[in-house]
Amino acid sequence: MNATIDVLLTEPVSTINPNLFGHFIEHLGRCIYDGLWVGEDSAIPNDRGIRRDVILALRQLHPPILRWPGGSFADDYHWPDGIGLPSERPHRVNIWWGNAVETNAFGTHEFMHLCRAIGAQPYLCGNVGTGTSRELRDWVEYCNFPTGTALSDLRISNGAEQPFGVKYWAIGNESWHSGGSFNPEEYVTEYCRFSTFAREFGPEKLYLVACGPSGNDLDWTERFFTRLRDRIAPITLHAFSGHYYIGRAGTATNFNDSEWYDLLWQVRAIEKLIVEQRALMDRFDPERKVHFIVDEWGAWHPPEPDHKESLLWQQSSLRDALFAGLVLDIFNRHADKVAMANLAQAVNVVQSLILTEAERMLVTPTYHVFDMYQSHQGAQSVRTLISTQEIDFTYRDEAKRIPILSGSASLRDNVLTMTMVNTSIDEPCEALLHIYTAEVREVRETTLTHPDIRAHNTFSDPGRVNLSAVRAIPVKGNTIQYTFAPRSVTKLQLLLA
Ligand code: AHR
Asked: Which atom of ligand 1 is nearest to the CA of 245?
């Protein structure tokens, strides 16, 4: 036996916030233009300019929340540019992403339509870097005030009779760099000014997000909350966001065995981020009224030699799928500490769910992991103890170890969902599962794996890495023996008696 898994049903961690399975799109490379947006006149089937195949694929994941318009782009985006007649919208330079000409064809109304079409809550990132508190205040009014003011009537005249009811707003993005190069104290000043004027213009309570550190910079967090505590007037703050990218182990599709293991090994930094940032925040906010969120994460690889100029376009292999599974399991296990997360990015950029090329579209192995893991949304995370063998490997002359098996479990009604990642390239992992304390009637198994660790989906072979069909395995009792396939992500749904 290589592992034992003890699921402690009587030890709930917390409800898994559905927003942990959120997504992100930015005006970057081919994410929006030539990705999800083709325009109404395109020969590619579309729904008000948005590719229909992309809408259908995203909708199937039940994405809870979608962040837009950036990223770095957000701090140079002026929302009035993206409303009104498309032919009259100004063209601007996208300073962060290759000086591309931004046509503003995709703006607030188009984004809201996308969110409605896929069933996601909109999450807007406000412009602190080159914007003003008035501009943000006006965007909130434009979106949320019902009727009878210049801005709400403008929205109505632009085709949206009903307010958009946007709850989630970020005050800037990566304010330590592309958002304005502030230090934490300076950013607190900006945060307070902007948040004071982001008002509740409609019935919905706003959820305001402050920019957190670069990586796991604890100094930023300490200084941010120290300065915030000194404010005289009460400041509205609902969440503090971290970003975390992992890479530097080969490219997306060209890596050796050590690089396979090293990328998956790097995942532990995300767990450290959550635990350490939350512990520090707890000193200022022991009741956890302010959430910790990770509103950008993903595997960001060096570009392939033939894609040097393509603005963060990258393939997504089986290795990225295991990486996604490991990260989502971390979120589940720490569901008491982290409230939202957004994969970067949904289409054609960084760790994509979807790749497009002219009229063709494919879903990546990462997409399949989000598909499997959607059963966790809103379920109760339960403590799961995994005792597993480890794999020794060497990367750049450093000896390292990685567990063969890791995962998470959640309970909804009488269904226990377990998701497990076997990181071993060639070893199946035999495990003994103990469910304390319930009888299991049936197990339903779905697996994502492939004989080739570098396997990925291409337009000539879009189904190369795909989910297995669901297999039902009859069982009895509360102990199950199960073998996890090598290099796999597996979902087991246990029907409890
Ligand atoms: O996701 C790509 C970029 O990564 C975002 O624009 C920025 O916020 C981050 O540095």
From this structure: 4
